[in-house]
Specification:
ATP binding, Rossmann fold, ABC_transporter-like_CS, 9 helices, six-stranded mixed beta sheet, alpha/beta, four-stranded antiparallel beta sheet, ATP-binding, transport, 256 residues, ATP hydrolysis activity
């Protein structure tokens, strides 16, 4: 299933305070979209609204489907959500945690997976480099290892849209690059990937498009070179940055 995501005049209020106001986006399947902005700009609220986890006004549609009219399970088959934090309190084997990604498809027991479910879990663990600790309890893993297991769970869902909230937090530089590359590869297979990140350099290098939020409103959207242009960086983030290229890829380093 592939489809474009349309967001029209999306607004969210939390505790009586507006956190998103009038956000409209057209996001194409098969693209990797980075969402950036200062702290408190509404980035997480945007992802949670798309996932159906916070009350909101406005339209969120995947193809011809209004997502707000779907059941929670049907929505979970279309939207796979990776929240911040990767908190895991039960000593389940990493493989079983990844298998939870198949729950929206009816796989309620990790010990009784069908062939398609087993293949999805194995492929997700392969591309996230988590196979080596498949049998270890997630409570014994490092923060970075748990983050990759959580990402594998999202990949295993096989949803046409992936939402990832700061997926590279707590990862070392190698695995930051690996995770962003894996998300980009997923997009190249037709999935719409939307990832919140505070790392403007990773966004500039890996994303097809960047959406910049400021105080709950869309400040800029477009290819990285346009959305992260010097004037936008000054206005929204209050920074100057080095912008260049290396091996044909864009480089952005916040400087002052």
């Amino acid at each position: 299933m592939t489809a474009d995501l349309r967001i029209r005049d999306l607004s969210v209020r939390l505790g009586g305070r507006p956190v998103l106001s009038g956000v409209s986006l057209e996001l194409r399947s098969g693209s990797f979209v980075a969402v950036v902005g200062p702290n408190g700009a509404g980035k997480t609220s945007l992802l949670r609204a798309i996932a159906g986890l916070v009350p909101h006004a406005g339209l969120i549609a995947l193809g011809a489907e209004n997502l707000d009219r779907l059941s929670a399970r049907a929505r979970a088959r279309r939207i796979a959500y990776l929240p911040q934090g990767h908190e895991m309190h039960w000593p389940l084997p990493a493989r079983d945690v990844v298998a939870l990604g198949r729950f929206p498809h009816g796989a309620a027991d990790p010990d009784r997976l069908g062939e398609a479910d087993r293949e999805a879990v194995a492929e997700a663990m392969r591309v996230t480099d988590t196979e080596a600790f498949a049998d270890r309890a997630v409570t014994e893993l490092s923060g970075g290892e748990r983050a990759r297991v959580a990402l594998a769970r999202v990949f295993a869902a096989g949803a046409p849209v992936i939402l990832a909230d700061e997926p590279t937090a707590a990862l070392d530089p190698r695995h930051q690059i690996d995770v962003m590359s894996a998300l980009r590869a997923r997009a190249r297979c037709g999935t719409l990937v939307i990832a919140v990140t505070h790392d403007l350099g990773l966004a500039a290098r890996h994303a097809d498009a960047v959406a910049v939020l400021e105080a709950g409103r869309l400040a800029a959207v477009g290819p990285p070179a346009e959305a992260l242009a010097p004037d936008c960086l000054r206005r929204v983030f209050g920074i100057e940055a080095f912008i260049g290229t290396h091996q044909g890829a864009p480089v952005l380093v916040p400087w002052s």
